[in-house]
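User: Here's a chain of 336 residues. Predict its fold as tokens.
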Amino acid sequence: MDEKALVKKTIFSGIQPSGDLTLGSYLGAIKNWVELCDGYNCYYCIVDMHAITVRQNPAELRRRTIAQLAQYIACGLDPQKNTIFVQSHVPAHAELAWVLNCYTMFGELSRMTQFKDKSAKNSDNINAGLFTYPALMAADILLYQTDLVPVGEDQKQHVEICRDIATRFNGIYGDVFKMPEPYIPKVGARIMSLTSPESKMSKSDKDPGGCIYIMQQPDEIMRCFKRAVTDSDTCVHCDPKSKPGVSNLMQVYSVATGENFEDIEKEFCGKGYGEFKTKVGEAVVELLRPIREEAERLIADKSYLEGIYKQGAEKAAYTANKTLRKVYKKVGFIER
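Assistant: Prediction complete.
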């Protein structure tokens, strides 16, 4: 067999600790990450440097970073099979980001959807980091010679600008960076708000009822699902355009139970939305219960988590620094 065929492809992804992890984060991202670990060389990051483009309470940021690490592990990410680390613990991310800033065009950055969205939401703090964050994101990905980046449909733009930056750099200096591809899972890629199903479920949702959190208590979860937006019809049928609320609930139920849409439609044929929403809520409660309980246990074991993030940073830095040294040599920096 060809030796190259035996080399695992590399995956990189990360989530900001700017708020508590949501059901959308789990079903749309982390659950898929868990299933990838045996077939790929995986790097999963807590991107705390990205988080400070919006003002954070320092104590809360530290708490959420540790809690997010615990939740990653509780969701099934084995630290022995995956490299799990905190972004700010690997200085190469910031170092490569500055170099890539010098190979990223102003026009490219000004077209980024997330910059426009965050600028509108934080009009009193439109900082340079918010504008140039794609260069840091490109550094995150390119440092590990990443093959695949798990993203939702709405985040493909992030990988596209990363590829543009890498192409520009490679065009000048040769094949320094591997060209990453977006990896979009077929199911659970985009979980929508329970109260505004036209918008993605987000920890920044102004309506607390629209978002479910991994660490949320069962009674609160059930209350949110019972209030979830549906429509004036009574038929449980998947049609994202005409029935966005019901379709979103079906998506959640499908990923939580493993049932396909056809079976879900049969299960709830002739039954009202009240029963359907209750069943979806119950499925989510049972899905999240063991994760929440394990995360609570891990959060209490601070020395264990410290060992994990230090080990992860050391492993990540080994790979990242190899790429950074190559980049520094190419651009003309004297070796340290």
